[in-house]
Each structure stands twice: as C-alpha cells, then as structure tokens.
Amino acid sequence: MCLCLGLPLSSLCIVPCNTMFGSLHQMDVALLDKLIRDDRESGKLPLLLIANAGTPGAGHTDKLSRLKELCVQYNMWLHVEGVNLATLVLGQVSSTVTAATKCDSITLTPGPWLGLPAVPAVTLYRHEDPALSLAAGLTSSQPVEKLRALPLWLSLQYLGHDGILQRIKHASQLTPSPPSVARKFPFLGCMCLGEQLAQQVPLSGVDVVELEDEGTCVRFSPLMTAAALGTQENDVAALVEKLGEMIPVLSCTLRFRQDFKDEVLQQASLSYIEDQSWPGLGGVRYEARTTDLDEDKRQYRVERINSDLLKKLMELDTDLYFSDGPEFCEEKNCIFIGMATEDLDVAELVETIVSIGRDIEESGKLFENMTEVVRRGIQEAEQQLQKANEEKLMEEGVLRQIPLVGSVLNWFSPVQASVKGRTFNLAEGCLDSTEPVYSVKAQMIKEASLDSPKSVTKRFPGQKLFRRHGAGSDSVSDTSSVSQLEESFRETAHVQAIDAEEAEVPQEHHVHIVAEMALSDQRVPEGQETESVDTLR
Predict the structure, then answer these.
(1) 43 vs 71, 186, 295, 317, 423, CA distance in Å?
(2) pTM reported for the whole predicted model
(3) What residues have CB less than 8 Å from 457, skipping those under 6 apart?
(4) Where is the sequence biased in composition, kind Acidic residues (predicted)?
C-alpha cells in the first residue's frame, strides 16, 4: 500500500495486540490511542486505520465499534477486511461484525465464500461527492478496467440473492457456536494431526497454519472452504470423530517418545535417530559390533542388517507401524516406529528389536564365512579322493587299466569299488566318508542344535506384540485408532500359530554343506557304476 501511495515504509505503524487485558488476538485500543496522540504531538498526521473482521490465520475480530470512535475522534479513515464480513448477509449477525457497517470502507472476497475461484476481491467505500472519488483515481473510464468486474457480475446474476444467502448460511451453520479449545502439541504433532485429518476427511477443508504467538495450528474455516469443497454436516461429524480418535493416540505417542529414547540409549547395539519431521516414537539404527572391517564394508553390513531387520519387524503381528523414515530424511539405514497407544510396552519393543538384529547379524557372519569354508573343504576333499585313487591303482594293478584286458578281467573277476565320496559338514567343520550313505541308502546327518533367542513372554489369546495386558479399558479404542492410522487388526489365530511354532525345536540354523566327489577312471562291467558324487546340500 505504501508503494502504491508513494509513501516510505516509515509511515506505516503496526499496532500490537492486547498483552494484559482482553483477547490476545485483538488490537490494543488503549495503545492505539497513545500512538495516535504521540504522532500528532510529533507533527505526524494519522490518516488510515486497517482493522480485521476475521484475521487470515484464525478469524479473530477487532473491537470495531471502539476503533470507529477513535477514528471519528481523530478524523481518520477506518478500513475493515476479513472473512467474517461474509456473515453480514445473514439475518443474525454478531455485534462485533455488525459494527463493520459503520466503517468508511470494507474489502470483500466473495470468491472463497461462494466457491468461485476466478472472482476478484471487491472494495466498497463511502463517498458523499462522486467527484472526489474520480479525483482520487478510485473510478476509471477505461473499458479494460471495467471488464475486471464481469466475472463477479455474471456469478452474482447466476446465483441470485437466494443462492448467495444459501451458501454463506450453510457455511455458517456448520459451526454455529464453535467451542474454544486449546491443546498444545509440539510442531510435529500438529503437523501430523493436520495432515492425517486432511487425508482422512478431505471434504472438511482443514489445513495447517503458522501463527505468530501460538505456532503451528490446525484450522477449520468453513466460510473459506465449504462452498468450494461441498462440505456437509456429516463431514464435520466425521472430522470430530477422527479428532476424538487421533488426539489420545498422539498424546500417548508424545508421552512415550522420551521413554523410547531412554530405552534405546541403554542398548549398546542401537543408536537413537532424532527426526523432528517424524510423528511417531522415533528412529533407531542397529550398529554392527564388528570393528575389524573398513568403513565401506561396515556401512554395507549395517545397511543389510537394518534392511533385513525392517522386513522382520513388518512381519510381526503388531499394530505398530515400521518404516524406513520420511522421504527426505538425512539419516540412512534407519528404522522408524510409528504412533503408539496407552498399552504399549516400550521395553519389550526395544528388546525385540535388539534380539532380532542380533540374530540377523550372527547369521550374516555365518554366511559371509561360508564361501571360504566351502572352498577349503572342497580342496581337502579333492586331495583325499586323489590319494584314494592312487592307492586303488596300486592295489588293482596295471592290467586292469588297459581298456580291453581290463574289461575281460573285470568280467571274470569283478572288483568292489573302494573309492568313496566325502561329506563336508559345515556346522562341525570336518570331512566324513559317504560310505554310510550308500550302505543304508539314506543320508545320516549328525544332529546339532544351536540356541536361538526366542521371546518367552506369555501372551493371552488375542493379545498382540508389545501390548501390556490389562492396561485399561481405553486401550481397545486406542488400538483401533492406531489401526486406522497404520494398518488393520489381523486374526488372533495367527498369534496362536506363532505360539505353537515356538514349542518346536528350531532347525533353521542347522546348516550342512555336503561335498562328495569321487575321482576314478576305473572301468567296471556293464550294470555297475563308479561311485563318483559331487553334491551340495
């Protein structure tokens, strides 16, 4: 405005809001009176006062009647703007907004009120002499300037008086007497709440705004969005229902964040990841305990362990949500845990993460060494088989190696094959003969059992992981809220199947590699075969 009038920015003065008495979002009338008197005493001439009838952020209205009295007293122009001016077309209007009709000028934005995005804003002003308006440049005789009002005129003609009244009345009735509720959450809590409400109830038109004093807030302004989105009363009811479900979950999550951080910091193998953009409990990273690797190999191992750990956690029968983090998260190779309910057992959650990560790390070390162990085992088996072939050649003699003579001798006097394969047991790290395999026609593997950490926490039927039994009657509704935010409940029969599997002896860690080779050029009569086997089991 100063640029349009050719005035310096020093001619603009911002009046603070109330700090001690009255609303904290209304202009301080007493301070305004003092500022006007100070300007007049210093030789300045106050000309214009701009007040709000519904601030852009939260819809607060100044004391327009008191401000009008000051403007009349000091001969100033009072201009009013705001979303609440739309209610002037209704039969019942609050006294604070009615005072706007006594102002010198008002700015209306009928586009959002009527759901017409291409309609320009309109400024209405009082004038006693039309010549003064023309001299001030408020009116124009240019046809192009007059055409700017054509979309508004056509829209008003199409809607008519009843249509305009109906749209504004409908938006006002969606919140006839909105309650004043103040509940403060951190920045990420309000951001998450607003985003979830906008996704689950899109026709409500809620959005997230940043206010100077309160910070980040969730705003519901039907006068600005109802006409364009077609918001109905059932949408408002759905919005209220979602608020009732999400606020307890959000409160529990914010309360458990510090407990989760403390539990993670107590584990030497876990690192806590702080990310303000994540609305859940937080993030963790499982750190490899190996120190004899270079940085590249260590980073690769950490990436692989955390990737497998995330997959294992997502397969668990729980209502918690596990993710690799926000899209633009700076931390890599992390696992982020979503929102929580009142009955969450934070200690059990952290212990499970550590236990699964330890299993993945130990199995990873085993498979990393498997290639070298198998290679050495095969080389040793080849040496033993080559030595056995040489001994067999010495026992049978040279005549049996001649093609024709050997066939005749083998026909009249067959020789029992003596070269046997070799079995390499990776779990025991030793070579054995395969003779027992062919003598009984079945493989006989020595039993070996490795301890596998299992969760022994006793659970009741239908109780999911990381839940405390009997935490309270509200836990049922809280769990339902988390399910709608993250994933639905699964059948409780799956929990019973897992309990049944825990009673069996774990066999997944029994790794046996069998390398059987027979190196022999001995020719045997038709119907007999040389035992030469090379298998990997």
Answers:
(1) 18, 47, 72, 76, 106
(2) 0.61
(3) 348
(4) 528-537
Task: Tell me the pLDDT band of 453, cut-offs 50, 70 and 90.
Answer: very low
- Give me 360's structure tokens: 């993945």
> Which pLDDT tens digit goes with each residue over 29-74?
999 999 999 999 998 889 899 999 988 777 888 999 999 999 999 9
Beta pairing partners, 53? 61
pLDDT band at residue 338 using 50, 70 and 90 as cut-offs: confident
Residue 76 has pLDDT above 90, yes or no: yes
Between CA 92 and CA 361 the distance in angstroms is 71
Residue after which a domain boundary falls, among 315, 343, 358: 358
Co-location of 333 and 234 in the same domain: no
Q: What is the mean pLDDT of residues 519-531?
A: 39
Note whether 255 and 223 are same-domain residues: no
- Amino acid making up residue 287: E
**What is the CATH classification number for the domain harbouring 338?**
3.90.1150
What total of structural domains would you count in the chain?
A: 3
Q: To 5 degrees, how large is the angle CA 339–CA 342–CA 345?
A: 85
Q: Is residue 141 in a domain?
A: yes
Same domain flag for 19 and 141: yes
pLDDT tens digits, one per residue of 200-227: 889 988 888 877 777 778 888 888 889 8
Lateral strand order in the sheet of 282-286? 270-273, 282-286, 335-337, 322-323
Reported as a pLDDT band with limits 50, 70 and 90, residue 9 is confident
User: Does residue 17 contact residue 214 with C-beta atoms inside 8 Å?
Assistant: no
Decide if 406 is inside a domain: no
Same domain, 110 and 76: yes
Contact indicator for 444, 512 with CB cutoff of 8 Å = no
Are 12 and 161 part of one and the same domain? yes
Give domain status of residue 338, yes or no. Answer: yes
Q: Is the same domain home to 239 and 158?
A: no
- The count of C-alpha atoms lying within 13 angstroms of the C-alpha of 537, restricted to the half-sphere facing its C-beta, is 12
Is residue 492 a part of any domain in this protein?
no
Q: Which domain holds residue 35?
A: 2-173
Write the DSSP string, 195-263.
Answer: HHHHHHSGGG--EEEEETTTEEEEE--HHHHHHHHT--HHHHHHHHHHHHHHHHHHHHHHHHHHHHHHH
